[in-house]
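The following block was generated as part of the benchmark described in Methods. Ligand: pteroic acid.
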Amino acid sequence: MSAHFISANLQVMGVVNATPDSFSDGGRFASPEQALAQAKLLIDEGADILDIGGESTRPGAREVALEIEIERTVPLIRAIREFSDLPISIDTNKPAVMRAAVEAGATLINSIWALRLDDSLAVAADLGVPVCLMHMRGTPRTMQQDPVYDDVVSEVYDFLAGRIEAAVAAGVHESDIIVDPGFGFGKTIEHNLMLLQSLARFRALGVPLLVGLSRKSTIGKITGKPVEDRLFGSIAAAVIAAMSGADILRVHDVGPTVDALAMVRAVGEAG
Ligand code: PT1
C-alpha cells in the first residue's frame, strides 16, 4: 500500500435487496415496504447510487422467474422515483428486467454476467444507459465449487478487457462502461485477497472501477465473524479498495462507509 491511487470521484452504491433470500440481511427487506424504507435510509445516509436487485446472486442462489423479478424491482424503482432523483442501478441478468427497470427510472445496468446472457448486450446498448460489467467464473449456483486460476489477476483483467471490447463493438459508449472484478464470484479467499492487493492494476483498463466486498465471506473468514458482524472488516476492505483506485463501492452500510471515504478523499485532496 505504498502508492495510493485515490479516485477524484469516489461514490458509494447502497445495496437495496428486493429479495427475500438475500445473504446479508436474512430476508429482512423482503416486503416492498421494507425495501422502500431501506432505500430511504440509504439515501439519508448519503448513498450516491442505489443498487436494486430482485434475484439473489450470492453463492448457491437459485434463479428467479422473470415476472417475480419485475414485480420485486419495478414498483420499488417507481416508488423511489416519486421522491428522489438519485441514480438507480438495476442488478439483473434478464434483458426484459433491464428494459422494464430503465423505463421505471433506473439509470444504470449492473450485470454480474457482464452482459453475456441472451441478447442482454444488444438490449443494454439500445437502452443507452451506463453498464457495469463484472467478472464471474461459472454461475452463482456452482461458482464456489473449487475455482482454479493460473493467475487470477491477469485472467480477470483480460476477461474485463474483452468485455469492454465486446460492449463497445455492440454500441455501448466507452464512457458508459464500468468494470468490477467480481469479489466472491468463483474465487477462493486467496483469489479475492490477491485481487484486492492488485486492484490498482485494473485502473489500466481506463474505465471506472466498481468493487463489492461488503459483508462477503472473505471478510467473514479473515475476521471469524458471522455476516451480521462484518461491519468493521467491510470498512477496512472499502478503504483499501478506495486507496487502490476504486471509483464506486457497493456496500450495505452506507453511513459508516461515507465517513470512511471522507477520510480517504481528504487524503487524496491534501496539499
Ligand atoms: C458485486 C456484487 C453485485 N455482489 C456487482 N454486483 C453481489 N457489480 C451482488 C460471499 O462470498 O460484487 N458487484 N451484485 C452479492 N454477491 C455475493 C457474492 C454475496 C459472494 C456474497 C458473497 O459471501
